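Think of the structure tokens as a kind of shorthand, similar to the way a musician reads notation: each symbol stands for something richer, in this case the local conformation of the backbone. In the example below we present two proteins back to back. Begin with the first one, reading the sequence and then the tokens, and try to describe in your own words what changes along the chain.
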Amino acid sequence: MWRASVTEAGQQHARRNWERQVTVEVMARAEKAQAAGQSQVRFCKAFDIPRNTLRYWLERKAHLGGHPKVVNFFESPEGLAVLHQICMAAHFVIEFLPRTGIRGMCEFLELSGLSKFVASSYGAQQQVSAQMEAEIARYEERVQGRLAAQMAPRKITLCEDETFHPQICLVGIEPVSDFILVERYAEKRDAKTWDAQVSRGLGGLPVEVVQSTSDEGKGLLAHVREGLGAHHSPDLFHLQREIAKGLCPRLNAELRRARRAHEEAIEVSAAWKQAAELYAHYPELRGPGRPPNFPKRIGQAAQAQEQAHQALEQVKAEQQQVREALRGIAEAYHPFDLKTGQRRSVSRVERALKQQFAQLDQLAEMLGLDERGKAHIDKARRLIPKLLTTLAFVLSAIKALCGRIGLAGPRRAHALSTSHSWPLPAPGRRQGPHRRGTKSHSRCFTSPAGTVAGPEQSIDRLGAHRA
């Protein structure tokens, strides 16, 4: 085994491409040979390995850092096999399994072989998870005050929502940094409770909430209006969800019926074909009387199957129309044209939104939507004035920020704001043609002023540079 590995190392020497498994085994053998009194020159000559290469491997190992026993283990053939198993288990669990959380951790411990040394049951890992969560909370309490004192004052947007598991949990996140300001269980979700929890989350932080994005819950609206005194921005997700609640239930029911009819038509067609084959190959099974007209029956079954297929494709096409309509709402509600990058006025966005809702009305009529379904669309339509108010708020905020640093000229302000208002696909998600196209457009119109921070931070940085 050793001689074969070293021979392979000599073959790799010719193309200067050493595999990790070979290098660790060569180093292990070289260290044993050196301990036995054999020189590096003689060892390298015997196994056709350049001495400079071997010296580089040994020097790299010596400078890895960490405890020598740990380094020696992972730089050995046995340690490399363990490391490979751990890495493969991590890749498989993190990247390819839908399961996350404690059960994903248990799966990782099992696949990596660490379960021989670490308790991998759900209960054991649940205890570790609870302890870690408590430690993270205590760490936040210790460092938040110190870090807050180093922050520059800033104005922020707060995204707020309630979750239920099953207790009411109030959540508030600053979207640029993804910093969780509020994550508390509460008995109520009224305005007073929201005010108290947000005030607690903002305590000691030099920030001012100028905008809140949430659904249209009465408690949240009163909290933003009276407690924060900030602008409220409707949540586009809940608007699209309201439209989907009106259109999708009927379409989903029709899709189930169409699929069932198509599957039954396929079964009937296959049954007639099988019956014709049995009739032809087994004469003893034939009964008295005139033989069945199999070609006619098979043709009728094939025609019914094709009609069921067309009906199924029609329902799928209608579902795609709904998806495009929902996406059209998101594209219409944007201060810049997502294809050309041109700035759009509030009136132009209003026309685009109304056009999208007109298409939704046509789609509802085509589907024969009842009054209950249309009511969901009308409920979403009533948010158009709030969407336009939010758009005007954003444009005025950009204008004020540009004026604060003396950034004159609409083209300059347009280029700067475009670079940060452009929607990019979420990292780590599979990107379809629409997402890839949007990302491509964003690269074309992105300003060199910066692509990571939000508009306010980039304008501040540009102002400092100009000063």
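Once you have a description of the first chain, move to the second and do the same.
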Amino acid sequence: MSNFHHCSPHHHHGHGVVVVETPGIQGPVGPKGEDGVTPEITAEAYTRQEGISVAKVVVGGTKEKPHFVFGIPRGEKGEDGITPTITAEAYALEEGAKDVVVRVSGTQTHPHFIFGIPRGEKGETGDAADLPRVSTSDIDKLF
């Protein structure tokens, strides 16, 4: 009888790693290791001056209290953004529809969304809501 076991390699594409699974004999349990220390990590970041395009990380402190300093390159100023004025409306879809439908029209500065929502099953009649009465002027005060 042979002491060799069949090995079947499994390739992980794109990583250049081959994992070999070897079924067989379980070895003995090793000795218990020492308790590890949970480090108290601190970090800070700063923006590096213009013209430097490489990020930099400096690690200091101790194993118990490591400290990371991240230097992030300053990016170029971007264009001013716009805040769009969004409008939307929603409709219940015909009976039997299962998926939500979303249509978008308009422009980047004035997009308009139309949502089609599938109808749910008819529920039982519930109790009447006891809502406080408010006027239009009360609602206008909220804005």
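Compare your description with these statements about the second chain. The chain has one helix and eight strands.
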